[in-house]
Amino acid sequence: MALKCPDIQITVVDRSTERIAQWNSDKLPIYEPGLDEVVRQCRNRNLFFSTDIEKAIQEAELIFISVNTPTKTYGNGRGRAADLKYVEGCARMIAEMSQNSKIVVEKSTVPVRAAESIMHILKANHKPGVKYDILSNPEFLAEGTAVEDLLKPDRVLIGGEQTPEGQAAIEKLCWVYEHWIPKKNIITTNTWSSELSKLAANAFLAQRISSINSLSAVCEATGADVSEVARAVGLDSRIGPKFLQASVGFGGSCFQKDILNLVYICEGLNLPEVAAYWQQVIDMNDYQKTRFSQKIIECLFNTVTDKRISILGFAFKKNTGDTRETPAITVCRTLLDEGAQLNIYDPKVEPEQIIADLTHPKVTESPEHVKRAVQIFADPYDAVRGTHALVVCTEWDEFVSLNYERIYASMMKPAYIFDGRKILPHERLQQIGFHVQTIGKRLLQQQPHDPTTVRTFPSHLTNGHGAASDIASPVHPDTDRDSGNNAHHRRLAFDAAAGWWQCFLRMDCTGTSTKPPATTTTTGEVDRMSRPDRRSTPPPAPPPTPHRFQIGCRIVRTVRTSVQSDAILGGVTSTVESLLGQRPRSRTRSTPGGSTSGDDNITIPPEDRNITPFGWGLLIIPATTFGLGCWQVYRKQWKEGLISELERKIHMSPVPIPDDLADLNDMEYETVTVRGQFLHDRELHLGPRACIQHGDSHTIGGLFSQKEASIGFLVITPFKLEGRDDKILINRGWVPKRCLDPETRREGQVTGTVELQCVVRLPEKRPQFTPKQRGAIFMYRDVEKMAAIGGTEPYYLDATVSSTVPLGPVGGQTRVTLRNEHLSYIMTWFSLSGFTTWLWFRQIVRGKSF
């Protein structure tokens, strides 16, 4: 505005002396492309920065309120509602210091009808002769392109009252913008529409990101490419291509804050379905960040303990130093919780800001551990040196042009890259040697490919099939015509596996002996000798063998179409035969032309058939399956007894809670009666969990039904027993995630003395890979820690009744529905035992072929 309106004096005021000093210096407090040049041109000409708020208010005709409106961290609406304390403070200062009429403009993102609240404050504190007009003029710029967005905005929105005074105020603000913006791009509405439009715009943009991110999970599961899907969808003129870039998730100061504010407004207007719809945008974003973080851990062999991982990018997007709600915080927090060591590099974020974000109480309870485990680097090559993996969390342009050959050489092997922004050349990285994972695309890992490389196999894997017994057989990658750079690897691996199966299927375990057949040249041998350049010399006729296990190898023979496959199959066959003390045999098989070659028709005299130790050893298979069947018989009896015992406990009449609470350790799943008061100020939460409604069942077994898709938490509340000093923990039931804050269900808080029936539950051990407990939210039933935080005895009960108040906890979250499918297991194992016994008798004893 100062750049385009040189005849208008603009003064920016703030209480922070340090911040104003930065604006008056060459080093601005924020980074934004092009902002330095604009400030240099206008500063001390018609743009001034000052801490003299009173003077600025008295001299101004238009006053823009551009203060932060963070999400409330306490009280009613905590975690969702916008905190308007700074807006209210500005309104009170304006009312106190104004000496003449003012036009007050809301520039901050505020809830609907916030202008009405500002007007109430101004009118309640007005001075004689001073009038106020309130306008809403929300900003639609994006960090990283803010200057460009201000110079060439898609639209300017101004909302005001539909009165002559209100319209006159709108015209004055329009006159300012018309200095550089076409009048057709300036939209005027009423105040409430303008306020809601800002929230709606951010909600729609975030919704598009969450929508494409949700499809990225589908693409990874199916083999589709989310970039191709986004391009196909974005070419539809009704949709458009913007904000369809899948990533690790959105961040920044606006999207999440404004959507949560919108959710809170909808709940306050008694529109729970609308609130739930927009809440899913946030839930999907949280899921995407968590899913990406877990993928890193899973790919690194499911553990990152003491592994050093480099994080490239910490800002929530490129071309900004803003780290508010950045996905990098979630990624770093997850890795730190799993014991990883982090090297972090970002070209614009200050090291102090990174440490402050990672040591925030919402992120960790051990700031000293974070400081020890995190190192900040000023150079990306230093940040990746000696690390196991590289994670891209911000789409800085410089990350695309890094020397990844140099990076690969300095990293631990195998070296992994996790591209959370889909900006890197994945195929080139795979050719270098990286294992690459990204968002929305399943990448087939390739080995580094050099067409000049000659790969060899040891002589014992090629002996007897076209290669001399004392040399290795060269296999050139370019002789394999399979598609893809790594096709020859797949072919060779398949041929090797087929060779081992061929050896197993053709090994006879009967100690027979036959006379050597007459030496003949079969049609098959003539064909093999006539193949040009495939073998230097035809192999000599192998001596007869007394060891044959005829099951048939027609399937295996179909893959023997190249020098590589023949060499591998034959070499592996010879190797296994030599290990078993067997000699290669000649094969005779009848062909349509009347000649024979031998893979099908071999006759072994019954009187010469003796079972070898290897043949007897194959009886382990039917014996093992028979033993497993017997074990399942025992398991079936045990499970039936367990179910019977649990049913007995569940249907027992309720008994008073014992005087000695230690007796509860022997009463799991029994129902007890308790009387006392809830201590709501020490409430804990267990989750996330799905809600179990009355009548739900668990078709696949287990103790908990999770049929309903909605996710929430169990409310664990300390309970003081009446007439006793003892306090215990009671699971009051399930509440949706949006009602985790007790202030949202104040009406559902039970007060006074109550009597409950509860099911006794024992502690559970921490499941593998379950994150550690943070604050008052637990991932599993860690009764000892719950009791320590809640100030109770370590005993835990599940309430069997639900709250009768809307949004109150849904009780009765314990269901005993243990499955008993051991009969099917018994039938399966005994059937396998019988079949393998018959197969052994047919092939080993009788010597019949298929």
UniProtKB/TrEMBL annotation:
It is an enzyme of class 1 (oxidoreductase). The active site is at C254. One of its GO terms (molecular function) is UDP-glucose 6-dehydrogenase activity. It catalyses: UDP-alpha-D-glucose + 2 NAD(+) + H2O = UDP-alpha-D-glucuronate + 2 NADH + 3 H(+). Residues 537-546 have a biased composition (Pro residues). Its EC number is 1.1.1.22. NAD(+) binds at residues 14, 19, 67-71, 108-109, 143, 254-257, 324. It comes from Anopheles minimus. GO terms for biological process: glycosaminoglycan biosynthetic process; UDP-glucuronate biosynthetic process. It holds the Pfam family UDPG_MGDP_dh. InterPro entries: 6-PGluconate_DH-like_C_sf (IPR008927), NAD(P)-bd_dom_sf (IPR036291), Surf1/Shy1 (IPR002994), UDP-Glc/GDP-Man (IPR017476), UDP-Glc/GDP-Man_DH_C (IPR014027), UDP-Glc/GDP-Man_DH_C_sf (IPR036220), UDP-Glc/GDP-Man_DH_dimer (IPR014026), UDP-Glc/GDP-Man_DH_N (IPR001732). This is UDP-glucose 6-dehydrogenase. Belongs to the UDP-glucose/GDP-mannose dehydrogenase family. Residues 511-524, 589-598 have a biased composition (Low complexity). One of its GO terms (cellular component) is membrane. Coiled coil: none annotated. Pathway: Nucleotide-sugar biosynthesis; UDP-alpha-D-glucuronate biosynthesis; UDP-alpha-D-glucuronate from UDP-alpha-D-glucose: step 1/1. Keywords: NAD, Oxidoreductase. The keyword Ion transport does not apply. Residues 464-486, 511-549, 578-607 are annotated as: Disordered. Residues 310-426 form the UDP-glucose/GDP-mannose dehydrogenase C-terminal domain. Residues 525-536 have a biased composition (Basic and acidic residues). Gene3D superfamilies: Cytochrome c1, transmembrane anchor, C-terminal, NAD(P)-binding Rossmann-like Domain. The keyword NAD applies. It comes from the Eukaryota.
